[in-house]
Write a structure and sequence with these properties.
The complex is a heterodimer of chains A (337) and B (541). Chain A has 337 residues and is of the alpha+beta class. In chain A, the strands form 4 sheets. A 5-stranded mixed beta sheet of chain A has the order 5-4-3-7-10, with helices on one face. In chain A, strands 6-12-11-8-9 form a 5-stranded mixed beta sheet. In chain A, helix 1 packs antiparallel against helix 2, helix 4 crosses helix 6 and helix 5 crosses helix 6. The longest helix of chain A is centred in the first third of the chain and has 34 residues. Chain B has 541 residues and is an all-alpha fold. Chain B has a single domain, classed as Cytochrome c oxidase-like, subunit I domain (Cytochrome C Oxidase, Chain A, Up-down Bundle). Chain B is 68% helix and 0% strand. Chain B contains 16 helices and no strands. Chain B is globular, with a radius of gyration of 23 Å. Classes of the chains: A alpha+beta (337), B mainly alpha (541). Chains A and B meet through strand 2, helix 1, helix 2, strand 9 and strand 11 of A and helix 3, helix 5, helix 8, helix 9 and helix 10 of B.
Chain lengths: 337, 541
């Protein structure tokens, strides 16, 4: 929405935008009503009961219990409506649909790096198809950042050491802002980019373009060999480390008898802090890869491990974060369309 | 009658003229005056950084100062305004000066501790000013880890130590007020005869005493991590960066109420005095202060809805945040009802009170947007938040502080300031404030993130409006310095009770004696009893 060519309201480019804006206008209307009611009353009283002579005093009115109850209960009810409506929109914002295509983002002083499962890598640019739910799993290489798509009405912080995620379904093709909204040092305001929403057919064309060395999972497979993970994690299960075949979404038993679900957060921890949770029956001999694997390579490794579990079906965890939902998506998500 | 008024021969300002008589004073009123001077200096230093910010944001490109300098500007603006102006402002100046005379006491319960709290404030202030002069700090006033622990190369620790030290000043003031209100009330001054100003300060003091130690601990943890390399918040060393946010907001959200609760107390006094009518629903207004103080401790994670907390935790904190809205709304309605059938006049303090009601209403109502989960995801860390908390902090707390200062100035100094210029200043502050901060709601919903040195071109017009409004606002704040100083020498003599106010502090001379009262007053009537005042005046005539 523009006035004299100046935008005063953000574009609605996702399915959320209308939901969020409806909530905004509802609260705006309620607020405007109360603000005006108070403003009109105090101005009216100020004029109507203006002091006319020295020594004049106001009427002795000490209070009124019914009025107090009335103006406590009515705002409480209205506030609960706002809470409930807001919570339901939020719940929707936090629950990526199972069929969402998956993109990885890494925040780094001061740029956003995006990786598509098909292998495309972008910096401060993100291309996505319209009409397709997109889930973005986010991590940070250094300090806190926050990935914000104003036109989609969603954001989430990038937190070093863990994954967070958001999702959206873009509707309107076009280019929109990407901002970093968590202060991250010198060039915080330079950590911006553009998300380009393409028609699905155009998106397919975009995916074909550019020199891509295999999918994200294939890159992960190469890393898996380069980092010599493959010498211990044998598919046969006879290696010094557990087999990684068909483990994603399953529950494994640890040395101390506790159970853990294999998801992105667990895989991440097992690579970076390998001594933290040892699978029952194995020795704690895996070296730690903290500081040796970049966030981008980490997600490639995770995608590789996920590709070894083609039938993984896991319910998304009840909470969006910190352990991100495990995608049930096969790598070539977009082709499904 | 006015001709007969003269400044009394003996009063607290004449009780010794040497520097020593000020620096070693145990008089709460002199300590309040020294606080007033100190926080005014801090206010204008903090204000200068705001000038720098608005200059930079007049154009979309980062062209006035470098990004690093800009980041230091908004950090120092926030640190100074929050910890060295807003938190001490009303309690340490108005509360310090007025609580003893309002309850009929000679002084606070611990006069030496009161002086100590001022010295601690100064030491904390000096640390922070040193950190500022020797290079500044760029973490934002929130000091989020891991940036503050491992990312920033600026004076994080000296600034943090300054805040740590100043925190003890706040704790001691709160402690002093609690004991004073419990133990020092004059005969007949029951809890429900206390002015609402005192109730609000009681609630504030509880928050100061219970909340401030948490920020102290958090700062120690940050310093230990930064200085000694402990892995508390840095995930690379096994820490949790989000833990810092929990600890920080566990204090810093209640700290918002340290800033606003005393302002609400001032408002009750202003509205009652200038409508010559008792405050509607006294006990609801009194208890709503306590309710706000209590609820204020359980809403902190509403600053963290997009910081990776679980969906259900977010829902709990959203729900609790809405619960704080209710006692705040109750206060607004009670003040409005107080005006009904009043005898209302619009001297400068009342202009500020009216301004407060408008701005605090907007500040409070925009808080509803941010407490709403589905909306906060979009609005978090945008200029909408900046506008919201400036409406509360500046539109609420500072409007009320200014109103209170204008109201009690004749009590503090014995003289009146220029009514004309003070009205001009009140209107300039109100108009300038709205031009500055209203466009920020719009630009915030549009998506402009806070703490941005440069921003997209299409957002320039709204930012230029902000910068233009800030000029008016700034001038509105400079003007009082001039007419207040002028009034000290040339102002009309005020007399003990120029406004016809009902509080006990107006029953003694202006400026008061060092002991406040000649003999201990005995309270035998309810607060805000204007019938009695008028009857007494008629009797005298």
């Amino acid at each position: 929405m523009k006035i004299f060519g100046i935008p005063i309201f953000p574009e609605q480019a996702s399915t959320f935008a209308k939901d969020v804006d409806a909530l905004y206008f509802f609260i705006f209307a309620v607020s405007a009503f109360f603000a005006l009611a108070v403003a009109v009353s105090v101005i009216y009283f100020g004029i109507r009961y203006h002091k006319t002579h020295d020594g004049e005093i106001g009427a002795r009115i000490e209070g009124n219990l019914s009025l107090e109850l009335l103006w406590s209960v009515i705002p409480t009810v209205i506030a609960m409506v706002m809470f409930g409506w807001g919570a339901s929109v939020f719940y929707h914002l936090r629950r990526p649909p199972a069929e969402a295509m998956h993109i990885y983002a890494v925040g780094k002083q001061w740029m956003w790096k995006f990786q598509h499962l098909e292998g495309q890598r972008e910096i401060n640019e993100l291309h996505i198809p319209a009409g397709q739910p997109v889930k973005v799993t986010i991590s940070s290489e250094d300090v806190l950042h926050s990935l914000f798509f104003p036109a989609f009405r969603t954001k989430i912080d990038a937190i070093p050491g863990r994954y967070t995620e958001l999702w959206f379904e873009a509707q309107t093709p076009g280019s929109y802002h990407i901002f970093c909204t968590e202060y991250c040092g010198t060039n915080h305001s330079g950590m911006i980019g553009t998300v380009t929403v393409l028609e699905p057919a155009q998106y397919q064309v975009w995916l074909q373009g550019g020199g891509v060395e295999g999918t994200l999972a294939q890159r992960g497979a190469k890393l898996f060999n380069d980092l010599t993970c493959s010498t211990c994690h044998l598919d046969s299960g006879q290696g010094r480390g557990p087999s990684l075949k068909n483990i994603v979404g399953k529950t494994v038993e640890l040395q101390n008898g506790s159970l853990v679900m294999v998801d992105e957060a667990y895989l991440r921890e097992s690579i970076l802090n390998s001594q933290a949770k040892i699978v029952k029956g194995f020795q704690p001999m895996m070296p730690t890869f903290q500081g040796l694997v970049s966030e981008e390579n980490l997600v490639a490794l995770i995608e590789h491990v996920k590709s070894l579990s083609p039938d993984a079906t896991t319910a998304a965890p009840a909470t969006g974060a910190p352990s991100a939902a495990v995608s049930t998506q096969k790598p070539a998500a977009a082709e499904k369309k | 009658m006015l001709d007969k008024l003269k400044i009394p021969d003996h009063h607290y300002l004449h009780d010794g003229h040497s520097l020593r008589s000020w620096l070693l004073t145990k008089d709460h009123k002199r300590i309040a005056i020294m606080y007033l001077m100190s926080i005014s200096v801090m206010f204008f230093i903090g204000g200068l950084f705001a000038v720098g910010i608005r200059f930079e944001l007049a154009t979309p490109q980062g062209d006035f100062v470098t990004a690093d300098t800009y980041n230091k500007f908004f950090t120092m603006h926030g640190v100074i305004m929050v910890f060295f102006f807003l938190i001490p402002s009303i309690p340490a100046v108005l509360g310090n000066f007025l609580i003893p005379p309002m309850i009929g006491a000679k002084d606070l319960a611990f006069p030496r501790i009161n002086l100590l709290s001022l010295y601690i404030y100064w030491i904390g202030g000096i640390f922070t000013l040193y950190a500022m002069i020797s290079g500044g700090v760029d973490t934002g006033w929130t000091f989020y880890t891991p940036y503050s622990a491992t990312g920033s190369n600026t004076n994080v620790v000296p600034t943090a130590i300054g805040i740590f030290i100043a925190g003890f000043s706040s704790i001691l003031t709160g402690l002093n007020f609690i004991v004073t209100i419990h133990r020092m009330r004059a005969p007949g001054m029951t809890w429900f005869r206390l002015p609402l100003f005192v109730w609000a300060h009681y609630a504030t003091s509880l928050v100061q005493v219970l909340g401030t130690p948490v920020i102290a601990i958090t700062i120690v943890m940050l310093a230990v991590e930064r200085g000694l390399g402990f892995g508390i918040f840095d995930p690379a060393r096994g820490g949790d960066p989000v833990l810092f946010q929990h600890l920080f907001w566990f204090y810093s959200h209640p700290a918002v109420y340290i800033m606003i609760l005393p302002a609400l107390g001032v408002m009750s006094e202003l509205i009652s005095t200038f409508s010559r009518k008792t405050v509607f629903g006294y006990s609801f207004v009194a208890f709503s202060s306590l309710a706000i103080a209590v609820f204020g401790f359980i809403v902190w994670a509403h600053h963290m809805f997009v910081a990776g907390i679980s969906t259900y935790a977010a829902m709990v904190f959203s729900f609790l945040s809405f619960s704080v809205a209710i006692p705040s709304a109750v206060k607004m309605f009670n003040w409005t009802a107080t005006l009904y059938k009043g005898a209302i006049s619009f001297e400068t303090p009342m202009l500020y009170a009216y301004g407060f009601m408008g701005l605090f209403a907007i500040g409070g109502l925009t808080g509803l947007f941010l407490a709403t989960l589905g909306l906060d995801v979009h609005m978090h860390d945008t200029y909408f938040v900046v506008a919201h908390f400036h409406y509360i902090m500046v539109g609420g707390a500072i409007m009320s502080y200014m109103g209170g200062l204008h109201f009690w100035w004749p009590k503090m100094t014995g003289r009146m300031y220029s009514e004309f210029f003070s009205r001009v200043s009140a209107i300039m502050v109100f108009v300038g404030f709205n031009i500055t901060f209203f466009p920020q709601f719009v630009v915030g919903y549009l998506g402009m993130p806070r703490r941005y040195h440069s921003y997209p071109d299409e957002m320039q017009v709204l930012n230029v409006m902000s910068s233009a409004g800030a000029t008016v606002l700034g001038l509105g704040y400079v003007l009082p310095v001039i007419y207040f100083l002028w009034s000290l020498k040339y102002g009309q003599v005020a007399g003990p009770n120029p406004w016809g106010a009902s509080g006990l502090e107006w029953q003694t001379q202006s400026p008061p004696l060092t002991e406040n009262f000649l003999k201990v007053p005995i309270v035998d009537r309810e607060p805000y009893d204007y019938e009695h005042l008028v009857a007494k005046e008629k009797h005298l005539v």
